[in-house]
Every structure is written in structure tokens, then in C-alpha cells.
Amino acid sequence: MLIVKVISINSPIKKSDFISKNDFRVEIEYNKKVYTTNTRWNTEKPQWNEIFIFNNETIDTTIKIENTLKVRLYEENIWSKSNLLEEESINIDSNNINYIVSNVLIECNLIDRNLNSFLLAHDDCEYYKEKLDNEVEKNNQLNNTINDLNEYNNELKTQYDYLNAVITNFTNEVSKINKNLK
Question: Is the pTM of this model over 0.70?
């Protein structure tokens, strides 16, 4: 697997757009798969910071052709064909990260087959995250039930206090009546 981050133009490029500032886009190709950045319109110093993932199960760092990354820099045009300004190929290895290719600063991370254990760990994390989300939902439901019970308990306490006051008043009235009868 190769992860490529297209960052920015490395150094100024001569203006090639007649109407406005340059409109740049970058095309990257690896193992016959091609990705293109978004066009940065009307700028001399475009920033992309776009990430592309080339997934290839059979990367062999000893075979140069499989680790060749092609980078093409275009000046985009709306009304006509885009102009290819620069094109360059580089060999990616796991010891280097940052490259300047076709005047474009890129970051490349070549990940070997050990990624499978990482992906399994990632899948495990997803599984446990889902379980945790379920437990959080259950906990929220229990908290809601507890809140409902507390409200009901408060209502019962209010009714108990009211009935106790009624009984106390009744008892006092009965006592007064009994004193009057004697």
C-alpha cells in the first residue's frame, strides 16, 4: 500500500495562464492507477494537502517498476485542453518520505505487508467501538429509567406528605370533637 499526500508547489512557476493567475492540478499515477487533485484556481502557490491511497497487495520494494510514482503538473483551462507543465517519475522506497517531483512537494508512505496485522487491530477496534457504543446506549436508557423512577418517587413522596397532613388534620379534628363530647 502506498499513501501519497500531495502538499503544494515547491517553487514559483512561470505564469502560463493569459487571463488570470495559474490554475494548477496534479495527477499522480502508481501501478496503472491514476488520481487527480482538485484544481486550485487563480493562484501561484497552491496548497492541496490531499491524500490518495494506492492499495496493492503485491508490492515488492526490490522491483523498481512497481514502485514508480509518476507526477504530472497541469495548468488547467476551462475553454481548452489543460497544459502539461511538468512530468516526472520517481522510485518510492520505504526509507524516504518527502519528495519533490515535477516541482510538487509530496509525502509518500510505503506500507508493507505488516499492514494486515494493523488492519486486523483496526477491525478489532471497530468491533469494540461498536460494543462500547451499544453499552453507552444501554447506560443512557438506564439513566433515563432512573430519572423517570426518581420523578415518580418524588410524586409519591409528595402524595404521602399530603395524605400524612390530611391524616394529622383529621386526627386533630377527631381529638377536638372527643374533648367537646366529654
Answer: no
